[in-house]
Amino acid sequence: MKIGFIGTGVMGSSMVRHLLKAGYEVNVYNRTKSKAMPLTEEGAVWKNTPAEIAKTSDVILTIVGYPIDVEKVYFEEDGVFEGLSEGKTIIDMTTSTPALAEQLAKEAEKIGVAALDAPVSGGDLGAKNGTLTVMVGGEQAAYEKVQPILDTFSSELRLFGPAGSGQHTKMANQIMVAGTMTGLIEMLAYAKKAGLDLEEVVKTVNGGAARNWSLENYGPRIIKEDYSPGFFVKHFVKDLKIALDEAEKMELNLPATTQAYELYKNLESVGYGDEGTQSLIKLWWD
Amino acid sequence: MKIGFIGTGVMGSSMVRHLLKAGYEVNVYNRTKSKAMPLTEEGAVWKNTPAEIAKTSDVILTIVGYPIDVEKVYFEEDGVFEGLSEGKTIIDMTTSTPALAEQLAKEAEKIGVAALDAPVSGGDLGAKNGTLTVMVGGEQAAYEKVQPILDTFSSELRLFGPAGSGQHTKMANQIMVAGTMTGLIEMLAYAKKAGLDLEEVVKTVNGGAARNWSLENYGPRIIKEDYSPGFFVKHFVKDLKIALDEAEKMELNLPATTQAYELYKNLESVGYGDEGTQSLIKLWWD
Questions:
Q1: Mean per-residue pLDDT, A96-112
Q2: CA B27, B31, B34 angle in degrees (round to 5)?
Q3: Where is the 6-phosphogluconate dehydrogenase NADP-binding domain (chains A, B) (predicted)?
Q4: Domain end: A162, A182, A203, which one?
């Protein structure tokens, strides 16, 4: 079974390495070719367009930046759909809109192609260590067929329902993260103003009912003024926008998530888009 | 060393039991006398007023409901201050205002009494198991003197600075919790509307960067529609109000915490004050 992989950024490159290690033949394409070159030295085969990837592979994985990039990769000239044929499977792992996941599934079905949406969580480290959480939407049969492939880079893999369900689950995840991040940042802003020792506060607060991953991982980094991205502000802004757009469609009011989105949008607008999400503290400290 | 204990509610009663078990003589007082009676059968001695408690004890611990209750217990007729004398120590463990903690310390100092603010975190279970987190403010010498006493019911005990610092640290803790709770509730509201299996979402989301104590503990309870209080809505509303008042005094804007406060105040106003904080989901589901 030949795999095609489109989008060899930080996340994608690590995933390709896990696929190669597991013995899969992998064709790769990336908008910026140079980023895919190290992978070709490790055994991956470069293809010149997404269409070529689709033509020469049985299962096509994509992980790109924004929903607009997903649309381009699949539907534009030389896009994936130009190279697809019956029996193949497409898997979009970009965090994107449930509606686009449904559209991909619908277009794929017309030509006998299976489609899954499978956004991931776990960041660059999770990709590197092969411990990503993969949240899948689509048909059971297609899911079962590609499970061994997704298993090569994930420690938690689950089918949540029909097309779009993977994206919805990822949105739920990001809504939760919006809460832990805003809570953490406002806690640190308060503690500093109150003259408390931040290291002691982080340690003590994390020992009880306020314990969370963001506090454990970003608390110490913020104290050390380390704002390097584990997860980009600009991508979090995109994710929260999708979550809120979906919520609006469902006539669901999410005031705390809306507040988090506004804070992060504000942060992006003052130039922190390419920093890590922990840099939200910059709205208070500078 | 004789200990006086005022406020034998769910938290206080467990704390008194740990003190008795450690061999301390404990005098008790509670506004509703009947709630203290089981403790007298276990060796505690009933006193008729806070003043009597103060007169007959060396270290006086208080844990009552609201800052107004703290003021009454200390400053009213038959209050603690009527019975205090030089060399004694007062420790208020109520989650209250830093300003009131400072006032207590100031009044105490005038008569040669040491004062500590020492709010706790860890809930009814933490009190029962003797694993509370105790966040202390006050003088180092007074802190060291009473450490063995506080140790009987805590697993994490720390002095954060001068009078009021314990309360400030507790506020930082509650700001963090406001984030995890609103995130959790909006996540569940979204996941349900999107038609996802809530149990699977909770399990998967808690496996990654969104992991937190509220999700682990309240996620499953909410799915089972268990809204019994681990922590009362009305007390969380009080705590967030104190945090926001303090923030305002420090000219600190906390938009996410403000949003959480408004949601919880709304929840209280529609009749959920005596339910657990996980009942916030009732603003979405009913």
A1: 98
A2: 80
A3: 2-157
A4: A162
Catalytic residue among A47, A55, A170, A238: A170
Is the domain of A134 the same as that of A212?
no
Residues A105, A235, single domain; the answer is no
The interaxial angle of helices A98-110 and A165-193, nearest 10 deg, is 160
B196–A171 CB contact, under 8 Å: no
- Minimum-distance CB partner of B256 among A122, A158, A183: A183
B chain contacts of residue A211, beta-carbon cutoff 8 Å: 212-213
Across residues A249-253, what is the average pLDDT? 97
The b-or-e profile of B238-275 (16+ CB within 10 A means b, else e) is bbbebbbebbeebebebbbbbbbbebbeebbeeebbeb
Angstroms from B167 CA to nearest CA on chain A: 10
pLDDT at B124: 85
On the question of pLDDT at A118 being above 90, the answer is yes
Give the tens place of pLDDT for each residue, A70-92. Answer: 999 999 999 999 999 999 999 99
Q: Which of B196, B239, B218 is nearest to B282 (CA)?
A: B218
Regarding whether B77 and B216 lie in a shared domain, the answer is: no
| Chain A residues touching residue B247 (CB < 8 angstroms) | 190, 193
pLDDT at residue B140, as a whole number: 98
* Chain B residues with beta carbon closer than 8 angstroms to that of A276: none
Average pLDDT of the segment spanning A80-106: 98
Residues B223 and B135 in one domain: no
Residues in chain B within 8 Å Cβ distance of A204: 133, 135, 156, 158, 169, 173
Q: Which residue in B88, B128, B170, B234 is the catalytic one?
A: B170
Reported as a pLDDT band with limits 50, 70 and 90, residue A123 is confident
Number of domains comprising chain B: 2
Report the C-alpha gap between A134 and A91 in whole angstroms: 11
DSSP letters spanning B182-243: HHHHHHHHHHHHTT--HHHHHHHHTTTTT-BHHHHHHHHHHHTT----SSBHHHHHHHHHHH
Residue of chain A nearest B250, judged by CA positions: A193
Catalytic, B110? Answer no
pTM for this structure?
0.95
pLDDT mean over A229-254: 96
Minimum CA–CA partner of A244 in chain B: B190
Across the interface, whether the CB atoms of A135 and B204 are under 8 A apart is answered yes
Q: What is the pLDDT of residue A230?
A: 86
Task: Name which residue leads in pLDDT, B10 or B191.
Answer: B191
Residue B123 confidence (pLDDT): 85
Q: List the single residue in A98, A205, A231 with the smallest CB-CB distance to B172.
A: A205
**Residue B78 neighbours by CB under 8 Å, 6+ apart:** B49, B50, B51, B52
CB contact under 8 A, A180 and B177: no
> How large is the average pLDDT for residues B66-84?
98
Q: Report d(CA A169, CA A120) in Å as an integer.
A: 10
Is there a single domain that holds both residue B152 and residue B187? Answer: no
Residue B110: which CATH number? 3.40.50.720
- Of B162, B183, B206, at which residue does a domain stop? B162
Q: Is A157 found in the same domain as A176?
A: no
Range of the domain at A279: 168-285
Q: Give residue B286's pLDDT.
A: 80
Testing the interface with B: which of A143, A176, A263 to mutate, by most B Cβ within 10 A?
Answer: A176
Q: What is the pLDDT of residue A286?
A: 80
